[in-house]
């Protein structure tokens, strides 16, 4: 018997989450069983711990879209007992039971060996949010972003994606402007390397002007909606925006003018189905380019029993940086 956070749905369709004892026999099919050490809390986890947001189809359900730990048993030729591994994406924690559990059984093809220089706890401080921030920055670089091009905007800066993006960009030598709706987090963002703080109100209203002053050399956008539409019109000529999230809305009330007159690029970033080679590339970059002292400053520690509350908090945009869940 071991502990897991189990979400049940009652006959009225209402969900409730609690720590329960489960057995290995209850785990879903897979060729690798992992003794989970740490998990984390992403925006999507908030949905899956609560009513599911359309992501969870079957109950009872064990959420947790990320985990890191040690392989306990493996029928997969690429992994053996004792290997340190990390998992993000592949709809684990949504369609397949996830990491809010002391053990998880998954397809070995979904795992990535823990990169040298990153421990299980640090890997979960990164988690899907930080991994996606890295993918977003890699996409901007692949489209020509270089230090010296000008300031890079990070929206939703005090959140998970935003905090990791800010720390990496600053470490790579970029000027980073962080957009936040929480002015009290300005010092935190500056400690991660932000050189400019932009108030959310300045950017979350639409404007009738499709183009404004050319301001940003790149953007990692965790917010979407009105803010993304506004930012597109403020990008420098030929600059790119990595569209990561929808914390501010899934709509995009924009015009095509920034694409046509300024050659602006809107780059879609998906972490869930990301091919293996690029996953390895992103984790290697994280080990090299994310300063571990800054990652440490983002961490709020938690346990399995804290998760129902944290799930609600992240959906309200009230989680700062990254939560690391010690499942044991
Ligand atoms: P967090 O909740 O940690 O961060 C989101 C941040 O966005 C908040 O902290 C807040 O930052 C800001 N924010 C929240 N609500 C609003 C609003 N109404 N208007 C403007 N800003 C707002 O979540 P994550 O960092 O984990 O995820 C961010 C987004 O990225 C989510 O939408 C998530 O679903 C998406 N995502 C997508 C992935 C992909 O594969 N494409 C992978 C991971 C995440 P502040 O207080 O500083 O303003």
Automatic annotation (TrEMBL):
The record's listing under InterPro entries reads: Acrylyl-CoA_reductase_AcuI (IPR014188), ADH-like_C (IPR013149), ADH-like_N (IPR013154), ER (IPR020843), GroES-like_sf (IPR011032), NAD(P)-bd_dom_sf (IPR036291), Zn-ADH-like_protein (IPR051397)
The Gene Ontology terms for molecular function here are: acryloyl-CoA reductase (NADPH) activity
Give all residue intervals belonging to the Enoyl reductase (ER) domain: 14-325
UniProt-listed Gene3D superfamilies:
Medium-chain alcohol dehydrogenases, catalytic domain, NAD(P)-binding Rossmann-like Domain
Q: Name one Pfam family in it.
A: ADH_zinc_N
Note the coiled coil stretches, chain numbering: none
What is the name attached to this protein's record? Oxidoreductase
Q: Which organism is it from?
A: Halocynthiibacter styelae
């Amino acid at each position: 018997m071991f502990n897991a956070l189990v979400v049940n749905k009652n006959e009225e369709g209402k969900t409730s989450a609690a720590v329960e004892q489960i057995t290995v026999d209850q785990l879903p099919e897979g060729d690798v069983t992992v003794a989970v050490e740490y998990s984390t809390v992403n925006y999507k986890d908030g949905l899956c711990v609560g009513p599911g947001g359309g992501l969870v189809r079957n109950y009872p359900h064990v959420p947790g879209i990320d985990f890191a730990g040690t392989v306990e048993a493996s029928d997969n030729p690429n992994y053996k007992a004792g290997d340190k591994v990390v998992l993000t994406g592949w709809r684990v924690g949504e369609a397949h039971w996830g990491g809010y559990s002391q053990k998880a059984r998954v397809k070995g093809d979904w795992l990535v060996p823990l990169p040298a220089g990153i421990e299980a706890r640090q890997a979960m401080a990164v988690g899907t949010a930080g991994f996606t921030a890295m993918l977003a920055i890699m996409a901007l670089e692949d489209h020509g972003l270089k230090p010296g091009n000008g300031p890079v905007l990070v929206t939703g800066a005090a959140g998970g994606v935003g905090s990791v993006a800010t720390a990496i960009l600053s470490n790579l030598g970029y000027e980073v402007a962080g957009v936040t709706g929480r002015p009290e987090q300005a010092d935190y963002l500056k400690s991660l390397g932000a050189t400019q703080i932009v108030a959310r109100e300045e950017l979350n209203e639409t404007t009738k002007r499709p183009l404004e002053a050319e301001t940003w050399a790149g953007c990692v956008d965790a917010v979407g909606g009105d803010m993304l539409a506004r930012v597109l019109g403020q990008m420098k000529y030929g600059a790119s925006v990595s569209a990561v999230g929808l914390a501010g809305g899934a709509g995009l009330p924009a015009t095509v003018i920034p694409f046509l007159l300024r050659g602006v690029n809107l780059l879609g970033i998906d972490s869930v189905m990301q091919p293996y080679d690029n996953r390895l590339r992103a984790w290697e970059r994280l080990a090299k380019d994310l300063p571990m002292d800054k990652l440490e400053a983002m961490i709020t520690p938690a346990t399995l029993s804290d998760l129902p509350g944290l799930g609600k908090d992240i959906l309200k945009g009230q989680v700062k940086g990254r939560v690391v869940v010690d499942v044991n």
